[in-house]
Amino acid sequence: MNPVTGQAISARDRMKEIVAAAKLADEAGIDLFGVGEHHRLDFVLTSPPVVLAAIAQATKRIRLTSATTVLGTSDPVRVFEDFATLDLLSDGRAEIIAGRGAYVESFPLFGYELSEYKQLFNEKIKLLLELGEADKTTWSGSYRSALLDAEISPRPLQPRLPVWVGVGGTPQSAELAGTLGTGMALAILGGDPSYFKPLVDVYRSAGMQAGHNQKSLKVAITSHGYIASTTQQAKDEYYPYYAYYLENFMGGNARGEQLTRERFEQLASPINALAVGSPEQIIEKILAQHEIFGHHRFMAQFDIGGIPFSKVATSIELLATKVAPVVRREIRNATMKPAHQHK
Question: What does the alpha-carbon distance between residue 199 and residue 190 come to, in Å, rounded to a whole number?
């Protein structure tokens, strides 16, 4: 529901908006588009590969990922088959971000114990990665039936489906991603980004200790965000939607909490992670974070809290035309400097 107008959008129209946003991002030159997985009536999207397959037919070049696949309550074989199918339909553009997600409704819905989250995820992520190694798999574990020389079909177009582990803030998750040699998608939804540097260090250290090439250990930073012509405009327009999101979808109401404008200003300040502002401020934030993390991707989640599609579209266009070209150029120039010029 839009908290400003009080109007709700139908599930059908919401789906059309998601596809339209992906098409706009593709045409504007954005590199990646992701959709999440939620199992509650106030979210329309429960099946990322189905929606991404529809998006694949409406786009040409943009890469397509889940954000995230709740792997602990999914069957890794089904997940692999679905995304391999997506990979074929999209001419090799499919990726998977696997994680717990922000909500836990899928555990009772699909008959899993939340208390076993860690064990479920650890077993299933290892199986998911193993399925990509060969056409046939022999495997046994604790949470699904064994596989004996099982044919895993279809095979993706890419030699290997890119898999990232979504990390919310625990060193154990970062260490697991590094040990497995997957990418790490680190969610930084608020606060000083430098506080998250130890997680990236843990990830890279674990990956190197496990024998993975440093260049293969890729980091993505994900943040909530909104872009407008000026920072003041961005904050004024975004605040009611972000406050509604935090209060209604992140547990604020249950604790009797509301996001004050003063607190929002702190979250959106230049030194904090919330990516709200003018194109110039977002550029500064991304480049400052790159100095900290040396990450390979920045992923902005614009579409939250009932924000209208027109505002999401504006953010996408500004990200593509004003932010991304400068960020790409500055990072490219920095990497091309002779070593003695780096301080």
Answer: 15
State in Å, rounded, how far the first CA of the chain is from the last one.
49
Angstrom distance (rounded) from CA 258 to CA 264: 10
Identify the residue with better confidence: 341 or 96. Answer: 96
Say how far apart CA 84 and CA 68 lie, in whole Å.
16
DSSP codes of every residue in 68-104: -EEGGGS-HHHHHHHHHHHHHHTTS-EEEEEE--S--
Q: Which residues are paired to 96 by β-bridges?
A: 163
Q: What is the CATH code of the structural domain delimited by 31-161?
A: 3.20.20.30
3-class SS at 222? strand
230-239: average pLDDT: 98
Q: What SS3 class is residue 30?
A: coil
Q: Where are the beta strands (DSSP E) in the chain?
A: 32-35, 63-66, 69-70, 94-99, 136-139, 147-151, 163-167, 183-187, 219-227, 275-277, 297-301
- pTM of the shown model: 0.94
* Residue pLDDT, tens place only, 155-179: 999 999 999 999 998 999 999 999 9
Dump pLDDT digits (tens) for 247-258: 887 654 444 468
For 238-289, write each residue's pLDDT tens digit.
Answer: 999 999 999 887 654 444 468 999 999 999 999 999 999 999 999 999 999 9
* Residue found by looking up tokens 């500064």 in the block: 284
Count CB atoms within 10 A of the CB of residue 9: 16
Q: What is the pLDDT of residue 257?
A: 66
Residue 24 CB coordination number (10 Å): 18
Could you tell me where the beta strands, DSSP code E, fall in 178-218? 183-187
Which amino acid type is present at position 103? Y
DSSP string, 125-143: HHHHHHHTT-SEEEE--SS
For the cut 60, the answer to whether the pLDDT of residue 49 exceeds it is yes
d(Cα 102, Cα 82) in Å, to the nearest integer? Answer: 22
- Select from 103, 109, 107 the least CA-distant residue to 249: 103
**Dihedral sign, Cα of residue 203, residue 205, residue 207, residue 210:** negative
